[in-house]
Amino acid sequence: MKKPLLTALSCAALLSTTAAVLAADVTYERLLKPEPQNWLMHHNDFGSQRFSALDQINKANAKNLRLAFTVPLGGKAGNEFGAATPLVDGGFMYISDVWGVVYKIDVRSGTQGRIVWKMDPGQQKPDRNRGVALWGDMVISVTGYDGRIIATNTETGQIVWDKKHSDNPDLEFSAAPLALKDTILIGASGGDNGVRNWLAGLDPKTGEQKWKTFIVPAPGEPGSETWKDKVNAWQTGGGALYVTGSYDPGTNLTYWGTGNPAPRYDSAHRPGDNLFTNSSVGFDAATGKMQWYFQHTANDNRDYDSTTSQIIIDGKMTGEDRKLLVHANRNGFHYTLDRQNGQFLKAVQYSEKVTWTKGIDQKTGKPIDYDPTKDVQNFAIDWKGGADVLKNACPDVHGGTNFWPPSYSRKTNLVYIAGNEGCADIIPDQTAHVRGKFGGGGYRNDARITSGLIVVDPVSGEVKMRKNHAYPNHSGVLTSAGGIVFTALLDGTVIAYDDQTLDELWKYNTGTGFVAPPMTYAVDGKQYIAIASGLNNVARAKLARSPEMRHQSNAVMLFVFAVN
Questions:
Q1: Taking the model in full, what pTM does it have?
Q2: Residues carrying an active site annotation
């Protein structure tokens, strides 16, 4: 009797251990079906919706939100910033800082965040880092300008593999990796430095490259005819992938937004539409082959990236069920596309002031002022070309919206966009086309930058609501089943709004601003809101245009809130 009992106990222990291991491993099946208590990938779901099914924090009790605990991050350079979205699995949080350091933080107590381990890759200089990915029992992270992708064991904090994927000191990895069933997708950026950017698929077990697709085509490749210069501008053409893409398991297509062409402000140096920059692109996730594209701003000279989230939804348009891709662009317009083929369906202006174009042609999706007979576009601004200043370009060079993500609420079927309001004079510099100076000029504007929370119906193509803010928003948006919209501002204010009326339900000023988006998770049935603070140079310069904020201090902290 003793032996069978011991065997049974051993089997029970084994099953218990196996269950624990399975629970700890982040499988493709878990990623397919977001778990409300956990936040397992950068945008929470493959559709990049940033919607949480948690509803413990709701319209009735949001007023009772309080600071639960904080965790200091970074610290090597002093004046740093946090750009990453934390991931949470089973009460453990994983977040990266500007040095590529990955933290595992135990947040189970709800009253403190205890750092379990840190993985320091020895990155040579700080760089924007938007977060990590979870795959199996590993955390996949990037290292900015070091050109490395690293897998770290989630339990021990030990490096499993460390692979270098670029020797170009001007190329960077800033987007969080996207974990699929048997591939890790990595987007390269640093386009403004004169880099020809690319998307790559890696083997998650080894970090070896399976495929790589360049955004800017080489001579003879499809799209190369849109680079009409005689100076080989395609070699340094940009097209950065700053923000993690989305993924459709049904078609195995992954959708990424591409950045501006380089040089950034001198479009005469690179005549033509400059494909496939400033575009939403659908790639085959198995091979990396481009399946379709839609270019939002051709021959761009205003730095109007298309890198904002590519959000996947389904909707009924003109009585027909459509599979949609919706995107709030840096140029001030929100677009609705067919995600199966890239067909343009609708666009609506979400920025209050747009001067660079008279509008979007609702048949083609191109700017009304786009002239197909011109190799260098000036759109609606009286620009003579060369070093002539583009005066009063609105939105300014940082958008509209930008790297900070919108959110699509499955409760209201609306998109919530953090959009900034301001203009700039753009100054092309044709002498700046040397390595390291691919900005191609600069911009000037000392006027105050404000922002708004804008609500768009992506199916009807209408702006439904707007809430204006006195300070810029470089954070982004989170929506939830509790009917709450969360966002944060550069002045350090975190805000909760009613998702149907935009009535303010709660706000808290931390004293230090945000360029990272909010997220939410739950432990033992209790819901928390988390966000990392700290401003980068661009954000600090934007905030300083509000005279009363010029001496605002900066700190890199993780703030976690909960209802009492």
A1: 0.95
A2: 303
